Predict the structure.
Amino acid sequence: MTEMNPVTTYTDGDVDTNDTAQRSLESMAAERYSRRQAMFRGAGATTMAFMGTSLLAACGDDGEGGSLGGAVSVSAGSNAATSAGRVVTLTGTVTGNGQDAGWNQRTGPEVELMGSGTTVTFIAPAVEAATDLVFQFSAKPLIGEPVTATTTVRVSPGVLGFTAVAHSLADVAMVPEGYSVTVMTRLGDPIAAGVSAYANDGTDDNFAQRIGDHHDALHYFGLAATGNTPDRNSSTRGLMVQNHENITETYLHVNGPSAAPRPLAEALKEIECHGVSIVEYVDNGNRQWTYKQDGALNRRITPNTPMSFHGPAAGSPYLVTKHSSDGTAGRGTINNCANGVTGWNTNLTCEENYAGYFRRDVSDDAKRTAAELASLQRNGITSRSGNYSWSTASSTDDRFTRWNATISGATPADDFRYEPNQYGWVVEIDPYDATSTPRKRTALGRFGHEGAFVRIAEGQKLGAYMGDDSRGEYLYKFVSTETWAAADADATDRLAVGDKYLDAGTLYVARFNADGTGTWLPLVYGSVPARPASGSYPEYTFTSQADICVNTRFAADAVGATPMDRPEWTVGNPVTGEIYLTLTNSNNSNRPVTNTNAANPRSYWGQGNPNGHIVRLREDGDTTSATTFKWDIYMFGADTLDTDTADEQANINISGLDVSNDFSSPDGAYFSRSTNPSGQINPLLWIETDDGAMTDVTNCMLLAGIPGHVGDGGAYTVTNSGNSQNTFVGAKATAANLRRFLVGPVQCEITGIDQTPDGRTLFVGIQHPGEGGSYDAPSSHWPNTQDGSTPAASVRPRSALIAITKNDGGVIGL
């Protein structure tokens, strides 16, 4: 989530509208195996390789055979031990005139042997307990049977396999030793043939064919080796779909932005910098990644791209505008924050802080009904200028006039009074069809959508989990009417499959009970009561399901959902099915010490909950359609350098963080893919931060953890300035289950993350580096600083995506 205050006035819509000094793994493994050496002697073990790349060579189980042409003997090398996700190298030796030397696997979980001849490598598989894999090396004499020898590799469960990155204020993306960073698509990079390279001096235009700004949520969609069809297992060629949430306005123009009325060219550039990009990525060999400027499926989806509406609100009076008199069509998507991925190869992009982009003149209030005014206020559409004042760029061109929601015509079809209702949705995009029209899925509700994690389980209905990122807002779930059919996974009419699962179902909102249980409250017309009058809001009575979908926040208020500390990303553990929700923070206007609740239990330093926390829940029966769940708080953010008293340790640093894993304001979250060892058995959870509380000691960061499960901690009482709050907490953090993996450059947010199916490349978004600077005094020069050079003082920073690889080719994080 971006928080800015440029000279042309921007609000992100975040307004309260609702009243290592640890022992090494290597040394521990060595100690363990010193006690178990006898177990391996029968297999010929004389040496061990631990926890990193295992090189098996020299003496092992020798075989000998052959006569004509001389004796041939082989050695398969020594037995070894490693852990899941590590690269293991098997090297055999042949003495004599042997031929056709090679390796094969005899026992254990099957692995892919890469290479040929005497030396091959493999990635150690995920295992639940220490497991032996036996490999055979053989060579054939000129006459006679092949001569063979075997070696055994003992694989242990995956562990965090990197040294924690320290706090950093450097203008570079810092990663652990043994890892490398490649800067990929950056703000302004051309993604169509014939488009010039980005000058980065404010003179560039045509962002409809360039990478947008403020890189946010991303997903890598695999492409077949040839053609443009999906291949879920491709780790060498794919489509990178990435959100572009917002802009750092000062760097887009030669001398910064002009005051209102805005020049049309400046406003168009800023508009086109928002939205989504789809770009072909290619591994040129050994994870040397580049992007293809003229990729056939490359595409920008901007606030000007045609859209269609689907679900209960489509065709309703709430969506009628001068552009769409029947309320079925719209243009564009904006403030795209987190995302979601369906089981049928489409992308979900989520519209978060759309409200601040719209202008409403003072005269508009008198022309609205009481219900309309309440809806506008509850959704934050109250600005008198609109972010960046785009509506002032033209009085006739509706690419700009539509950002003015003031009533000016006789009917809704004569103006853009309901244009704000066309935003705040989840939008489905087919990345494999560059001509397709994205679809806004109104059944999933309208609010400040952070993301939409889709959980698909065999024999169950689809579940989509969504946070509403503003103070005091809610966690939602949509459950499809249709039960998942595996045949739909490979359908070619992908958006039609989206119609099937995303247009009909039940929308719920969460209530977190004080006893560690929770209830999903249905938001269904006929069962949702009128929202009672409160504060400046009159009573609001719903007239249809379309009304509930458009005014979802009111419906959630009405049924008594639990206000949360800014719900951000939702992600699901691919093994347990547990759902994690990041709550980035909440200030004191929303969370005073007398207004905590069990799921949001902290209020301290007079700032509410400035460091945030992560809630997790497990559906009863482990089914997406469950209406009850159990929950606890997986982890609390904390600045350990600022929580050194016993009271602060007990009531702020509740998770026991230290300088190797402390963090603040969790935002992005991601579980490793289940197609590789880091996403199997005990999947890695990745946590990204968008922090303002710890930035005096470190830039924003990415952490990797091996979480447990709901209930692995227990009941806990937090004392907030003498006020007690009971809650439920997870197991404490340790060096073994949570470490800092990356620290970003100056004034950035770390957001957007995915990996290739094999887990050997991790893609991460770096958003708005140097956002506090200006065109004539940039406060960052990243990514030009990434290679260690010192750019000229005038070089402007650029949001960018990076590819992180492990130098030995192993799985990232393990």
Summary: Confidence is low (pLDDT under 50) at residues 2-8, 20-61. The two ends are 29 Å apart (CA to CA). The first strand starts at residue 54 and ends at 56.
